[in-house]
Amino acid sequence: MKHITLARFAERALFNGGRNYQCHNFSFTARHQHGGRFGSFHWRWMSTMPDIKDQQHSEEKKRNDEVVNNNNNNVVVSSYWGITRQKVLREDGTEWPWNCFMPWDTYNSDVSIDVTKHHVPKSFADKFAYRTVKFLRVLSDLYFKERYGCHAMMLETIAGVPGMVGGMLLHLKSLRKFEHSGGWIKALLEEAENERMHLMTMVELVKPSWHERLLVITAQGVFFNAFFVFYLISPKAAHRFVGYLEEEALISYTQHLKAIESGKVENVPAPAIAIDYWRLPKDATLKDVITVIRADEAHHRDVNHFASDIHHQGKQLKEAPAPIGYH
Question: Which family, according to UniProt (predicted)?
């Protein structure tokens, strides 16, 4: 009876095994007691199909491991998610080298803008903002003195904060109240991104020391939180503060230009990132870079004083057209 059952079981497994390729092995063990000196015997049968599949799986895994290793060596991101960098070319047909911005983000800065305009403080909020900025200017001058490059670098780490804070708070307000911002979210975030590009350019020219990096971390942490609270309390005063901050930036960059013209600062070739971002000529120099950065700061000055004036009139920013598209 045992022999018949075992035979049927083996026959069924043999025929089913040909149809089912997902099984890895078939194993049968039969123990037959004959007693005496024969003891017992074991019978084991295994399909050859799983061996082939295991071998194929092993080879495929080896190929995949080689691809992964090659990708790791070449720092190539997997395209599993379908995210691939499109091939972008310059106007001359060469490949675009930057990932942080694209050709459609570049522009020609309006260097004809008036860099001497000044908003005369009238209200208490204006005077508070103006005197606060002047006090901060004294501290920065005492620390940096005539190190114009380091001063500009430090200034840009601070100047890139207000646009991000203002744009973020307007974004949250838009979500909270189910209303449009009139384009001001985009305008303020464009300002923040432009200030960051100023910083990326200055870092190519000036290598900050460890204590300057520590100063940047400290100043950014304090300023971000302080300006966040400031903007929540009074957007009117916050934008006026930024307007005056940009006026001081104009003074600093004008002094930088004079130092270049007088020979105190070497007029070195412009960094490649600046040439592409502002569409400068290939032979552009540091003087050209400082000139376009100063023009950008003048635009930021006007935008923030304009925003403060809107609030002074008792209106919201969304009621006035946002200056989008300058950058």
Answer: Belongs to the alternative oxidase family.
Burial of 53 (0-12, 13-18, 19+ CB in 10 A): middle
- Listed residue (102, 113, 157, 159) closest to 277, CA to CA: 102
Q: Which residues of the chain have pLDDT under 50?
A: 2-4, 6, 9-10, 13-15, 17-53, 67-68, 70-72
Contact 247, 301 (CB under 8 A): yes
The answer to whether residues 113 and 298 touch, using CB atoms and an 8 Å cutoff, is yes
Which residues neighbour 53 within 8 Å (Cβ) at sequence distance 6 or greater? 21, 24
CA distance 186 to 194: 12
CA Rg value for the chain: 35
pLDDT in tens, 133-184: 999 999 888 888 888 888 888 889 999 999 999 999 999 999 999 999 999 9
- Encode burial over 63-99: b for 16+ CB neighbours within 10 A, e otherwise: eeeeeeeeeeeeeeeeeeeeeeeeeeeeeeeeeeeee
* pTM listed for this prediction: 0.74
Contact 27, 45 (CB under 8 A): yes
Q: Is the dihedral of CA 109, 112, 113, 116 positive or negative?
A: positive
Q: How far is residue 274's CA from residue 284's CA, in Å, rounded to a whole number? A: 9
- At position 122, the amino acid (one-letter code) is K
Provide DSSP, 85-126. Answer: PPP-B-TTSPBP--SS--GGG-----TTS-S---PPP-SHHH
Encoded amino acid at 123, one letter: S
> Contact 170/181 with Cβ under 8 angstroms?
yes
Cβ pair 131, 238 in contact under 8 A = no
- Confidence (pLDDT) at 94: 87
Using an 8 Å Cβ cutoff, are 327 and 107 in contact? yes
How many degrees, rounded to 5, is the angle at CA 156 between CA 150 and CA 158?
Answer: 110
The single-letter code of the amino acid at 180 is H
